[in-house]
Every structure is written in structure tokens, then in C-alpha cells.
Amino acid sequence: MSVITVFNGLFCEAGVVVKRVLDATGYRLVTDQEIVADAAELSGMAEDKITRAFQAGTSVFNKFSHEKERSVAWLRLAMAQKLLNADNLLFSGFASQLPPAHIGHILRVCLIAGIKDRLALAEKEEGYAEKHAHKLIHKDDEDRAAWVNTLKGVDDPWNDELYDMVVPVPKVGVEKAADLIAEQAGNEAVRVRHSSRDAVEDFLLSARVETVLANEGHNVNVAADNGKVKLTINKNVLMLERLERELADIVGKVEGVRSVETGVGKQFHQTDIYRKVDFEVPSKVLLVDDEREFVQTLSERLMLRDMGSAVVYDGESALNLVEEDEPEVMILDLKMPGIDGIEVLRRVKQSRPEIEVIILTGHGSEEDREVCMELGAFAYLHKPVDIDVLSKTLKEANEKIRRVNG
């Protein structure tokens, strides 16, 4: 029997269509939540961090942490294991895009509707005003477009070349749409064959290699064919041969790998720089200081030590970024216009107590130090600070975070 994947826009009646297909075929539904839970169990990453891979917005720290790429690697492995161990499955949602196109027994379905139909359904089923519904649809479409681009390199998530069936639900009708999908799921063209089973094995091996490399801090494209693994480097690196040797050495030890080939891709000659993640140093440091030249120089000096950082110049911006993103360590000045450092520290420790805050100030008093430590600051340092002292303190904060997170 085949596998069905269903990708859809918001308010396209996908839930009703999928239920009818399940009733007609007896297939088991696999949701995004199930794939995320499997990926979290395999990786040890938190489910909410993995789920963020589906969103269009990327963390300002991602170029240092590769967290989105690592999440995608573990999602692929979770999907590959599902495909290897069972047929008669229907995957609905973002995860439906994870399998590669060459697995022949997967029926790829896209459910769509025009914007007027989607707005009308949003009002009918949820009672949403048109403006609010339009905003929800736009955000969901944006997330889906970014997700498809990440996996397939295609800008249009509804491109019919990605699917075996593109079904305009309002025109066809829910019942007919479900009947068409169930009928095509039994088509000889999507029957399980030895070649499609081999393609799943290749998908599983490439996903396993990806996760092994991710655990070592590397981010490259991986393809597998009967035990032959090809690694493609898409970001510029100064010592290419050294990186290729390191990658080949890591991958060559993965069970099932017979040979390793490395090469560079089309994006290699762009300005983006290849960065290996060093998990021993913090990669998500937020610098908060209104002295712009000082804090920009500090950020550059930390980056030379492989510590990824983002910079904001006032307390309000710091609190906004903490709400929207996931810094792990904050280096915080006390004396700033608007919301001062002590108030920022207080609010951060109330809302996100897991963030370690290092106070770095040129104007603080002993009383300020006592207040900050009582509020939960990790350390209290004075400007000018020796960069080695600051680096050591950052690493100690990072070690504490790693211990707490297991």
C-alpha cells in the first residue's frame, strides 16, 4: 500500500477532506505533533524548539547555533523511520514536505482554495472578521512558503511540480476531493516496490548522517544512494580540504556508509561563511549597551572566539528580543536611557529565568552589585573588562545552561 502526504493552506477544508480519506482507506493519520515528538525524543531537543523550524522567522542567533538546521535534520530522521516501519500512513501538515521526491510509493497531495473562499470559510467556521482572517492566512502562507523553500528550494509552496495531485477543494467539493485522493492512493503507480523501499533506506541513511554531522556542529547537504553518501558544502570556507577531510572522517564511521564524496554547491562562492557550531561556547549571546561603538566592538571580539551574539542598544529592545527570540546569555549594561539595566534584569528573570545575565557596567556601585546578584545575575563585571575574563565567564554560564538542560 502507498503513503499519502497532504499539504494545504489555512482554511482550505483540509481537516474534513483528510478525515474522509482516512475513513475511506483505513490509513493512520500522522500529524506534525507526532513527528515533532519523535524528533524531540531522538535528539533530546525541546519540542517547542523543533516546532519553530516550521516558522518563517529565523532566530537572529541561528547563523551561529544552526538550531533550525539541526531541527530539520532530526525531523527528517523521524520521518524516515516512520516511512521505513509502516505503510498505510497519511501525513498531514508541514511534515508532509520532508520525504524526498524520489520515493515512489508516496502520493503527494496539495489542497488549495482561492483567497475569497478561504476568507468566507474563516468567517463561517470561526467567526473571524475579514481583516483578522486575512492576517492569519498571510502568516500561515508565509510560514509554508519558507518551509518549502528550506526543504525544496522552491519559492511557491503550491507549485504543482511538487505534487501528484493539486486539488482546488471549493471547486471540486470535499466529498469528491476525498474520493479522488483515496482512488489515487490505490493506483498502481504509487504501489510499494523494491526501488521505492530502497529510496526510503537512502532517505534514512542521509537523515542519520545529517544528524551525526549536526551533533558535531556541521551543516551541509547530504544525499545517499545505496550506501554512497555525497556531502555538498554550500557556504564559503577558507580551508576547504581540511573541512572535507573532517566531514569524510565523521561520516565514514556512520553505520551503513560505504563511501563518502564531498563537493561544493552553487552557493559556495557567495559571501556567506561556513560556521561550525562549537557547543562548548555560547552561540546565543545578547549584548545590551547604549555605547554603540563599544558593544559592536565587543560583539566582533566575541565572534573571533566563535561566540555568536546579537546587539541591541536599549532596555526596551532587549525585552522585545527576549520575548520574540531565545537568547541564552545576556551581557547587560546598567546605566541606559529609558528602561535601565536593573529593571531589564528584573523583568527577564521574571519571564525567562533560564537566561543567564552577566552585568557589565562602568558606573555600578556595590549596592547595585548586591541588587543584581539578589535578582539572579550570573556575574557582575566592571568595564573595562579583560576579554579573556569575559570569555571565561560566558563559558561558565554556558556550562551551567548545558547542565540544567541535560
CATH fold-level name of the largest domain: Rossmann fold
General shape: globular
Question: Rounded to an integer, what's the Rg over CA atoms?
Answer: 25 Å
Name the CATH homologous superfamily of the largest domain: P-loop containing nucleotide triphosphate hydrolases
- Output the CATH class name of the largest domain: Alpha Beta
Q: What is the H/E order?
A: EHEHHHHEEHHEHHHEEHEEHEHEHEHEH
Largest sheet: 5 strands, parallel
Counting DSSP H or I runs of 4 or more residues, the number of helices is 16
> Proportion of β residues?
15-25%
State the helicity in percent bands. Answer: 40-55%
Distance between the first and last residues' Cα = 41 Å
Describe the structure.
Pfam families: Cytidylate_kin2, Response_reg. It is a single chain. Helices cover 50% and strands 16% of the residues. The protein has helices at 14-25, 32-43, 47-51, 62-65, 67-85, 115-126, 130-152, 169-172, 174-185, 194-215, 240-252, 292-304, 315-324, 341-351, 366-375, 387-405; strands at 3-8, 28-31, 89-92, 106-112, 165-168, 221-225, 228-233, 259-264, 285-288, 309-312, 329-332, 356-361, 379-382. It has 3 domains: 3-190, P-loop containing nucleotide triphosphate hydrolases (Rossmann fold); 194-264, GMP Synthetase, Chain A, domain 3; 285-405, Response regulator (Rossmann fold, 3-Layer(aba) Sandwich). By secondary structure, it is an alpha/beta fold. Strand 7 (228-233), helix 11 and strand 8 (259-264) form a beta-alpha-beta unit. Strands 2-3-1-4-5 form a 5-stranded parallel beta sheet. It has a 5-stranded parallel beta sheet with strand order 10-9-11-12-13, sandwiched between helices. Strands 6-7-8 form a 3-stranded mixed beta sheet. The chain is built from 16 helices and 13 strands. The protein starts with a strand and ends with a helix.
